Prior knowledge:
Helix content of chain A is 40%, strand content 23%. Chain A is α+β, with helices and mostly antiparallel strands. Chain B has one domain (27-177). In chain B, helix 6 runs antiparallel to helix 8 (118-144) and helix 8 packs across helix 9 (151-177).
Amino acid sequence: MKKTAGQALHFAAPARAWAQRFAFLFLVVAAFALMLLGKADTLLVERARTMVTDAMAPVLEVLARPVDTVGDLVEQTQELADLRTDNAALRRENERLRNWQAAAQKLEAENAALRELSRLTTEPGMRFITARAIGDPGGAFVRSVLVNAGSRDGLTKGQAALTSDGLAGRVAEVGQRSARILLLTDINSRVPVVVGPARDRAILAGDNSNQPTLLYVTPGAELKPGDQVVTSGHGGVFPPGLPVGVVIQADETVMRVQPFVSWAHMEYVRLVDYELPGILLPASPWQTAVSPGAPR
Amino acid sequence: MADGSVAGGAAVNQNTWTRLDIVARSLSPFAFTLLLVLVAMVPFQVPGLSAIVPSLGLIAVYFWSIHRPDLMPVWAVFLIGVFQDLLSGAHLGVGTMVLLLVWLAVATQRRVFGSASFMLVWAIFVLVAAGAQSLAWLFSSMIAGIILDARPLFFQYLTTVAIYPCIAWLFVQTQRGFVR
């Protein structure tokens, strides 16, 4: 190894060195130009990104498969060990949920009757698309996940991404067969939410930490740890009422939310196709003010 | 090619295959680095890992530009950087610039590496990686317009430095097996 390095040193001709130096300068300028281009936030960069992720999606899928298999095996073994205790716990929970079911059915009927009475418009329909997480780009500055579904599966930009626990993020870039989900925790993520029993409005803003913060809380709102956070539906991008998390810290300086999603176990995500009636969709000034905007 | 055409069909064939073989072998550090960038993106489903997953691209560029600078030319470094930036969703150009500067640092200090032991190369990597991560933080903060939290980057730095010997060992095996 040392020998080859030494040889290369000997044979490096001065002319070649100059050519390399020139190439280096040229490429540094090119990298700088790319930085500016990325900052300018052009469609071109996004298209290049989706092209690369589309091309690499099959490779990533293959790479992710053994990891998933091992993870499933470990999980299954653990489940086998806890079978008895889990069973007992599930029986108890089932009993409790039966009571809740009865309550929910009663409330649903009541709700329908009241809606009928007040002539409230019905909620638009929702369609779910399930996709597998195939890439977790990692890194210190971005919180996103690549999934193996794209425009051909009906994904569009802005759709909400859910796991079984709650809201995970939103579709930020869509390729043909892959898409990038911007997670709630990313520094560019902004989601309009309502908090607590009083349904105070706020914006859930990521800051690359695991617990996003609440901004622009309704003045005078008294939030306390334990308050539930759900999407508000303001901006018309997300359906209202998707579970997001609970407030874990609420003081004068900062309010933090612990999302329900377990970031380490995002194997599958469901994308919500929320079919808002066409009249609402054109970006009104009101909508652009509240909607999460388009980071990147 | 020229002497092949003089010698006749079979010789041309053999010559072409040999050449293809040589090209494939000399491309293997580049291809291997791209693969590592992809491997670093696999969702390992370990809590907290994704933020501190080591920058394998950095290790690869450092290793190959020290030990086989002929097989890690500056354009390859550039392509690796752009590939990584596009795929990871990070600010375009930041990773590219950092990798180029790492390549420059190695290229200008080649005399130091000429007879360096593994421990010394690793020790220098500790410094180079620190510089690279600081630059990445600086560029990203400048582009984002705010001071980004540097803590995840610090942990990523630690994992990168810690995993260096393993990746270097893998590369040495690759070099013995494929590269000529």
